[in-house]
Amino acid sequence: MTSLEGVQEKFRRLGLNANISRQITLTHPNIRQPTQAQSALIPAILLPTDVILRAHTGTGKSFGILLALLSKPRIVFRDSTTSDPSVPSQGKRSKPQTGIASIILVPSNELALQYMRWARSLFPTSSLPSLDPVIQCLVRGGFTGTDAPTAEEEMKRLKAKPPHILIGTPTRIKDILDTPAGSSLLGLDTLKTLVLDEADAVLQLPGRFPSHKQRWKHEVHKAPGLLILNEIMKRRATFSGGEKHLSAGLENRPGKRRDERRPPEHVRRNSYKAAERSSASSIDPHTGLTLAKSRSSGVQPLQLIATSATANSVMRHFFAARTGWLRPGAKDNGMSFAPQTGRWIDLTGLSGQSMVDQGIRGLFGANERARTDALIQTSLEQTPSTMPGTIQHTCIVVDEAPLSKQLSAIPLRNFDPKLARRRDGSSISGGPASASLAEADAGVAAGDDFIVIRPEDEPQEHEMDRTLIEALAFCFASEGVNRGLALIPARWSLLKTRAALEALGVTVRLASDVTSPPSPSSAAGATSAPASEKEATKSASASAGPELFLLQTTSSRGLDIPSLSHVFLVGYASVIDAVQYVHSAGRVARIGGDPDTPATGTVVTLLRGLPHHTPIPSEMQSRAGTDKLKKAISTSEAKMANVYRRLGVVPKKLDLGLLTSRATAAGADQPPSEKHEPVFSAEKADTEKLKPDQQTGGTA
To answer: What is the pTM of this model?
Structure first.
């Protein structure tokens, strides 16, 4: 058996058909075996079961979804009648009509186009000139380099050539669904599988401890993805749907970590009390969502799939306890020995052994016990974490030596790792934001060792921060990055930011250039010289020199840019929260490179500190003569510290030696009376205390 045949056999054992398995080896020669996530997800999709899956970023979840759906049988409608009365009905058959078998909802245009690129790589132009019969894409605004089709044009194409798989963003699918013929064009009554890729972003569910405002927004202004799902649930029953499981997401199981831990009783009684309300109506009076339909004999249920690296107990509670649409652990006819019709598959180790075992057991059939045990053991052996352990995290604070009359010679400093640790020495924090952060919104917040100050003249959200842009250019150069990605706030202009970076000598490309549709010539060339898209892009980037890709942070979910070594988060507005940080950091350490080398990467977060003219708080002035002085930090630092605590991350220090040496050399050329002593220094902060008149906005 050759090597290619061995790879094909590994994918066929998961349930993929021979044609798809063969195309994988021909078009992606760097793939040697399915990933752990694909080994669990592909068989689950090919079974009559609903699935919620959580696996780390970069483990091939989206690609596995595409492979599994391509292997599913097509929907074919055969009409034996004819409109001509002179022709006997049994003597002539009309041409078979196909229907949409699967719909994939994705949160961004970039991720939708990524699916299309994968499909084109599997089916080159020489073998399949048009992808329309196999897969189509519906997004608002179109793609870079193409004319944006109108909704009417897309509906006309759907009617003429219904695809096997339809991919779309919630907003565009909702546009089609709101038309009189929308449900018919989308084939909702005959649809076999509905996939929510990056499900928490598609549904926009509130967090584990939502504020009243967040809960009100979720109930009154529901996300388009949630409205689409609700409309489909009015029509269709799922494999696992039924009576609500009120304890879903609140399981009292051993070994659960972080956001999987069971909330205290008083939180359960208040935050989750809505699930305990029931009604005889088909609409839940509290959520305004339809209740799950019961399965009818002889009617094919809809398969519901939800995947995300940050799927958690909140999502399970929503699906099983608040709506009953997808109930993990549910079994056919309620029989204890029947196969599961709903599964929670967790490959991060955060759910504990019993829940990991329950989700994976039975995926490969009774004769594949060894494969099942191996997958369970692999999931349990890894260290429970929300992100891959091969990602290195650093954070740089840019400030101007605040609370001092002297300007600093070193405008950058490292984030203080002490802020990311709890007082008991553990870096894990599973609760809501600390009281100091809540007070920080009011202006000043005090902690045991630091005080949070809100700058009076913070830049507006839509204004590009040139100070952070300069820091980004320096870090990109000093780190020797060959291929990096910079994520900027959603309200910043991509074109202005690119111009500012290019003025500083940085080669910048918009990430949409990578996700633009492949040209027919490039697609055809892949057939004569099979090579993966990742390898081609890597060789092209090597010849072009260092380059930095630019993208707004809200569009980064699920995006796969090959060969990235660094991700730069520019400002806390690019971080947003702990969930978004997980997905932003997950653009590095992804599969697709050398299979024999672990995928690694670095995440650099750039934050604004305090400006030079920030006034000294009265509390610090009153303690100026005491032994222990509090360190001043900005609100961005305080919020970032909470993100690190929630994720169990302690950032490492970035080497700022180049900047320090230049500052020292510049100071040596000045007369002693004109030298500016560096106010903050990583080495100095660790060995001695600053004098009262040199107190800065934090330690390095």
So the answer is: 0.83
